[in-house]
Amino acid sequence: IMTCGLPGINSVLKAGCKKEKIHNFPYVIDKSRLINDIPENIPLNCIKDIKDKKIILTFSGRMIPRKGLKNLIDSILMLDEDIFSKFAFWIEGDGPLFSFYKDYATKNMKKVNYKFLGFCQYKLHSWLIRNSTIIVVPSIQDNWGIVIDESQQLGKLTISSDGVSSGLDRISNGVNGFIYSANNCYELSEILKQTIINDTKLININNAAKNNPKTITPKDNISLIDQIY
What we know:
Blueprint: E1 2-3, H1 5-14, E2 23-24, H2 31-36, H3 44-51, E3 55-60, H4 69-77, E4 87-92, H5 98-108, E5 114-118, H6 122-130, E6 134-137, H7 146-153, E7 157-161, H8 165-170, E8 178-180, H9 185-197, H10 199-210, H11 218-228
């Protein structure tokens, strides 16, 4: 039985599966691909954010309720307005709620530097993650969540709700990232506040993320299949 990370292992143990038959086989991404992907077209307004030395706060996910984008927007709106000038908010993804989120942002985030980037092919997605400072995965529920793996491998500060299995598996709260209670916008806002204004803490956590001992590569998964057979 192959399953993703500790939450997956615990779930199959609870279902009565024998421990000796269970193997950790998470969905993972090759770091070299994340580093070397070169997109054909890069949004000029994103390049400007980088040149302006903004902290880049990024959401990447499907535009559906379960992914929690509205909670992230509401958490940002709880920040003091003098913090808004320090960061840019990149929103990557598409889905049935795309128009709703754009309208909600237009009405409520007038003082925030934000960009809806829509669906991005993988090379551009890699570029966005590479150039981000903070990755937030605010899902109310997510069986895994590959963005956590991407963010951690690139040594990015990662903030995950406790509804994301990859976050629970890979992140030690306050050490190599942050875990907050899903749907708790105030808690997420407080984490955003301390990470945006505390450069030293941000750097230390980034280094811990990059050297995460729980990181598994595609080659590791291939080796596991070979061992099993």
